[in-house]
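Below is one protein, fold included:
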Amino acid sequence: MKNKKGWEEMDMDCLVNIFQRLGLEDLTIGVPFVCKSWHQASLDPLCWRVLDLEPLDFMPWSKFTKRFMMHYSVHHFSFTGFMRLVAMRSHGSAIELRFPLLFGASMHDLFYASSECPGLKKVVMPNLLLEDEVHIPELVAKWKELELLEIQSKPASFLEMVAQISLNCENFVGLRMLGSIKKDDALAIVRLLPKVKYLCFDKSYLPKEQLLMLMDGCKELERFSVKDCIGFEADEEVMKKGLGIKFFECEGSKLFDDSGYDTDECDPLYVHVI
């Protein structure tokens, strides 16, 4: 009977092919500590093309944080330090970066990521302080390959952000955002993002006028999700126009909220709690 090879003796390319399917927890505190060959394979930049920070618990008392500190023999753990570690290991090859929405990454973290990961195609932004939102257009302009952007709430700099995407991100096709979608916002999307194929404004304030403007003006739109919105009803006109979009989702949307309140000045924070 021939001796079978152990996992540690697998071809390096095979190991890399397997490890690039793993999440960041496994890549940082799992496979590198199994054996030398696994550690070497885990450092291949191909394993770090998707930097998904969302599922990790970065609180000081979390199991993940404690294991990381133990494995790397460090006495202090920081989100910034961890993010820089995984960004550096990508060696500029990362194409997707997902920040945790609620943990509170800083604008410094975002600018560092834009420098270390210039080829990002998909970015999920964290919640930012109001004073930091002014920097979003400058930040987005650095990602020349950007195709998809998810942002938790519409920033005050939204119009300038769209302008910078138009000028710098020729492959941009998708936006996911929550907020109050005003006429100027819809016009900017129609005029400056003509190639957009995916829009998601679930749980936003979206009047019918802006909804129809987007449906008529975004000629290449393939998926449009406006579920649980306030500002329009799925009447015959809306549904008829929706037939021209491959995937149109508007379940749960209504003209007024439960108190009958409806205004163009609707605060996005108000929409959050509906």
Observations:
- The mean pLDDT is 89.
- The longest strand covers residues 148-151.
- The chain has three domains: 8-48, 49-172, 202-274.
- The chain is about 35% helix and 10% strand.
